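Dear colleagues,

As part of the handover before I leave the project, I'm documenting each prediction I ran so the next person doesn't have to rerun anything. This entry is a single chain, and its sequence is reproduced below.
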Amino acid sequence: MSETPPNTLQYRFDGPEDAPVLILGPSLGTTWHMWDRQVPELTKQWRVFRFDLPGHGGAPAHPADSVTELTARLLATLDALGVQRFGYAGCALGGAVGIELALRHPERLASLALVAASPRFGTADEFRQRGVVVRTNGLDPIARTAPDRWFTGGFAAAQPAITEWAVQMVRTTDPGCYIAACEALAAFDVRAELGRVGVPTLVLVGSDDQVTGPAEARTLVAGIPDARLAVVPGASHLVPVEQPAAVTDLLVHHFSTAWQQPFDTGQTALPATPAAPVPVPVAVAVPVAPPQPAPVAEIAPAAVAVRPAGQGDRYETGLKIRREVLGDAHVDGVLAQADEFSGDFQEFVTRYAWGEIWDRPGLDRRTRSCITLTALIAGGHLEDLAAHTRAALRNGLTPDEIREVLLQAAVYCGLPAANSAFRVAQRVIREETTPAG
């Protein structure tokens, strides 16, 4: 077990000290124990390195709100241990870290496996909405619905011990770190960069995964030059737990046959005192046939967006911030309504209000949301108030803090204006903070 400074990750080693290093990366809301069932077989050939995400599994709560930051912390941890070259398998958010390694640090990576991964995880709105729910209600609603996202219905019903393990794993995660990880997934989009992944890659997915399913897996295979697809029958999102034997066999075969360069025998790794793992209850494994060669790509990589003529970096910066604050759905709706008459105005708003003012470093976004809410109340702009109440929640204000802003506005903007504002904000907060399902 490791001592964990803020710029590194909690980790553990298993397996021979002189073997090549194989890293296993976890999914959001899980701990390194999601890989417990793979470790006995993998340690026959590799020195297995597992890590916890910040605030997960008892790791120190130092939030990291981007995949780039998580990757940097992983590399800092490995650098301190003298580990230079390694194979990597990651599940979901852990898979995003694997793609980031392949794109930004290809010299470190010998081989890659992406499990339940995607070049873009849903939409930014979905993950920011999840952050709002956690900020308002804590992690209990997310924990209670985790088995529905992670496992097939039959497996969850037949394995109540594993189902409860999953719920408790999420429930004991630090909420702030969970929200930051949601932000990391919201901002992650490498669809246009997959062609630059230059290491042999196994893309592994459960046939019944409703989160990042076979369609997303085929997008990865279509975009990565040296990739092959393995679909595991009878498994959902957390496929290493639901079908451990099948996943283990696939990983062993891939890393045994697709290690890009010979292992550097001069590499050393500091031994770690093994931590006693919390045993994952035994799950019945369904045998699967060895993976076939990847089919002809069915989904083409996404095209690179073209910069609108005559619009410079401020427009691009403004559009990014506008989407982060107001959400993709809102911005897409506004821009879709723009025509020849109003298009210049929307360009002006995006470039100046969002690309200049909202991007200034003098105030953080929480403060800017407080100011904006007050100004909209004073002006009676209730339609925009609804959009910016949602934005305030995305920017980290709690419903209690929004209430205080409205009470303050009631004193200086008038009771009728505040009365209307409370009705709008109350409706939006109920919509945004009510857990799905």
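The longest strand covers residues 109-115. Residues 415-433 form the longest helix (19 residues).

All the best with the project,
I.
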